[in-house]
Design a protein that fits this description.
274 residues, alpha+beta, Spore Coat Polysaccharide Biosynthesis Protein SpsA, Chain A, ten-stranded mixed beta sheet, two-stranded antiparallel ribbon, 7 helices, 12 strands, globular
Length: 274
């Protein structure tokens, strides 16, 4: 069985308790990975890390990227696949069966996202059956989402190699533009973040305030005019790369919303997790 590796901050004990109960209900083994706290990042280190993407990253966004990078290292060091989870991910009750089937696909996959986030994705028109109601489709272009994904050691090594050559980015953006990965999508999706429950008409209340974009969040501004234009140019280059990617796969792929099976989440209605 693929175990869950839950990224969690020391001060987010309520989130950790939520995941412990959720994963125990699903009979999934769990390990906790201590997340990087943005307050532990020195000012000079932050400035060196925050200015290499398409806009200036906030301290929390840098910390989130470093936390995922630590998870990739954990996968590489353990030499086995893990379900990497952020601590506000909500899982379908079909996840254990899906994971059991995914591990049998190790010869052809490196990264599988279980998540959807109410945005369209470029997926292969063909699919592979997993379990009843769920299939596996090749993922060519994603736009967001890093709350629940299976990473194999070969994929972890590719991500770590890229992180050595590239500046930090939003964690999900870094994953989405890692075209060197052999990436797949569980279809329908088997996970969402709690802040997406309303988009999928799930009757759950999100009890957690975002640790990345709290209520008083405002994006940091560029340090100077030169950085401002560097960010602009990087955004243009990223859009061009995405456009080329989409053109290169348009014959075998389709641009679709990834749904969920709502009834697979209804088992939580009587749970005290939420």
């Amino acid at each position: 069985m693929i175990s869950a590796l839950v990224i969690n901050l020391d001060h987010s004990s309520d989130r950790l308790n939520f995941q412990r109960q959720q994963l125990a209900n699903l009979n999934l083994p769990m390990e906790r990975l201590l997340a990087v706290d943005n307050t532990d990042i020195l000012v000079n280190d932050y400035e060196n890390l925050a200015n290499g993407w398409e806009r200036k990253l906030s301290p929390a966004e840098v910390a989130c990227f470093l936390s995922h990078k630590a998870a990739w290292q954990y996968v590489a060091d353990s030499n086995k696949p893990w379900l990497i989870m952020e601590d506000d991910a909500l899982l379908s009750q079909s996840v254990p069966a899906i994971l059991h089937e995914i591990i049998n696909q190790e010869d052809k996959i490196e990264y599988v996202t279980l998540e959807t986030r109410y945005r369209r994705k470029w997926l292969d028109k063909a699919s592979t059956d997993l379990v009843e109601g769920y299939r596996l489709r090749r993922l060519y272009q994603d736009r967001s989402g890093a709350a629940a994904y299976v990473l194999f050691p070969s994929g972890a090594k590719k991500l770590l190699d890229k992180a050595q050559r590239s500046a930090p980015a939003l964690a999900d953006a870094f994953l989405c533009c890692s075209y060197e990965l052999n990436s797949w999508q569980v279809y329908p999706a088997a996970a969402i973040q709690l802040d997406q429950c309303c988009n999928y008409d799930l009757d759950f209340v999100n009890p957690f305030v975002s640790t990345i974009t709290p209520l008083n969040y405002s994006r940091p501004e560029a340090n100077n005019c030169v950085d401002y234009w560097r960010f602009k140019l990087r955004r243009v280059a990223a859009q061009l790369r995405m456009g080329w990617r989409q053109l290169s796969v348009c014959r075998q792929a389709e641009y679709v919303m990834v749904p969920i099976q709502k009834n697979d989440y209804e088992y939580k209605s009587d749970s005290s997790c939420i």
